[in-house]
Write a structure and sequence with these properties.
Blueprint (H helix, E strand, L loop, with lengths): L2 H21 L2 E2 L4 E2 L3 H7 L4 H31 L3 H12 L6 H11 L8 H6 L5 H8 L1 H26 L3 H9 L4 H12 L1 H15 L4 H5 L14 H10 L4 H25 L7
Antiparallel strand pairs: 1-2
Length: 277
Amino acid sequence: MLSPYLALLLFFGVAPVLYALGLSFMDTIDWVFWGFTNYEFVLQDFRLVESITNVFQYVAIWLTMMLIGIGALSLMLDALSDRSAAILRTSFFLPGAITSSAIVILWLFLLDPAVSPYGSLFEALGWENRQQVVSHMGYPMVFSLMAYLAYSGGWIVVIGGALKGISTEVIEASRVDGANQFQIATRIKLPMVWRSLALMAILSFANGIQMFVEPQLMALAGRQYSRPDWSVNQLAFQYAFNLGDFGASAAMSTMLLAAAIFISLCVVFGTRFYKMD
């Protein structure tokens, strides 16, 4: 039963990573072995530190929004009737069915006070145009809101499934003991689904540090919004398709993957994620 997944993982996951790893040790212009020269080159790029800072600011804001927002919404939905909860989960899931590129284009309108349904709020804050809205909110916050609305619906469904797996006998016993809805949610349900929330955090972190689409497509709003080196993945893109240096691009991509794997493993083993209760 695992063989189809393993085949796809091999051809579209493991093989490209091994190819990029080998490429990172090559001078892809003269096709000679360079050792760690590509890694030294990209680490000396003056834009790298700022790009890393931008990405981690975005990830910190986004993960906080995901853990608090999705955790709270999932617990509240689980307290409703099955029919009402199903309707609301579907409404939360629908925005996530839109691709990231479409989400960015939609947000370019939402951030413009002239056409946004939140225009009156922006005007009350003294933000008269899109540039003022973006500059006051900051790119990390803007991208976090985009990502939250794009991915939260799917995770609400996943966490909702985990909550439905809790034994009804446990919930009934807590009610008999006098627990109210808030106590049941925070003291019974939340501790029993923390692994699902931890999994969401791990996968979201791995996805977040590889962000590319959102800052890349902001240029559609105008040249003043263009940030071609805002994220680390954009730097790798610049090396490959602007400079033609695929070895340097592969080196940066490999380091980014290694960082994601290392931090994810620290979270997994630090939280004893796979320990059976």
